[in-house]
Amino acid sequence: MFAQDSWYLIRTKSNKEHLVRGQLSQLVAEVFAPMLKLPPTRLHGTKSPLVPLFPQYIFARFDLATHYFDIRYMPGVTGFICAGHEPLAVPEAIIDGVRARCINEVLQLSARPFRRGEQVRVVGGPFSEFEAIFQGYLSGTKRVAILIETIEGFGVRVVADVSTIVSRQTASLPATIPQSLA
Q1: Which of 41, 112, 129, 147 has CA 20 to 30 A from 138's CA?
Q2: pLDDT tens for residues 99-119?
Q3: How far apart are CA 51 and CA 40, in angstroms?
Q4: DSSP strand pairing (35-37 vs 86-87)
Q5: Domains of the chain (ranges plus CATH)?
Q6: Closest CA to 48 of 100, 110, 105
Q7: Within the chain, what is the greatest distance between any pair of CA atoms?
Q8: pLDDT digits (tens, 9 = 90+) for 10-41
Q9: Which pLDDT value is given to residue 174?
Q10: CA-CA distance, 10 to 70, in Å (whole number)?
Q11: C-alpha distances in angstroms, 127 versus 80, 100, 179?
């Protein structure tokens, strides 16, 4: 490996990551196309599907002057990620950061702890200590939709960070009954 070898981000045509990865691995020393292992769904049964972590993008380390045209016009490639007309080198720290989260180039998401219809308690934010019904996950596993019952008995849909809710079964309850209530 030479000093001028850098990481670059290559954009592929839709669903051509596997094809381009195979071609690149024959041409350059290092190719990194991390995959995401999704939790099992009813559609896939017990088998967890693998999808690209960055759809339509592949990282590759190579000398740009030597391999630019070979890669740019490779079947399945649409181009490089550029600043202006110049391909942008990706810092090694970014590659290392993504690799640190992967096992054999596969990132596995933790199972989603809440189920639709489950009773939850809000433990942070403006609705702290409200009881709610879990409605679903939004864009991954960080944001959730919950229904909070209003005074009129209607459910209001609220979007919250998943870290601000807990299951009612695991919500901390007082260990003893206060004397004023006994």
Answers
A1: 129
A2: 988 889 998 766 667 888 899
A3: 13
A4: unpaired
A5: 6-108 (3.30.70.940), 119-167 (2.30.30)
A6: 110
A7: 81
A8: 999 999 999 999 999 999 989 999 998 876 66
A9: 39
A10: 12
A11: 45, 36, 28
Are the C-beta atoms of 117 and 111 separated by less than 8 Å?
A: no
User: For residue 180, what pLDDT is reported?
Assistant: 40
- Per DSSP (E only), the strands in the chain are 6-12, 30-32, 35-37, 50-52, 57-62, 77-80, 82-83, 86-87, 89-90, 106-108, 119-122, 131-138, 143-149, 155-161, 165-167
Query: What's the CA gap between 89 and 97, in Å, rounded?
Result: 16
Residue where the block lists tokens 């942008």: 88
Alpha-carbon separation of residue 48 from 101, 107, 137 (angstroms): 18, 12, 18
Among residues 2, 10, 17, which one has the least CA distance to residue 71? 10
pLDDT at 178: 39
pTM of the model: 0.61
Euclidean distance between CA atoms 88 and 91, whole angstroms: 9
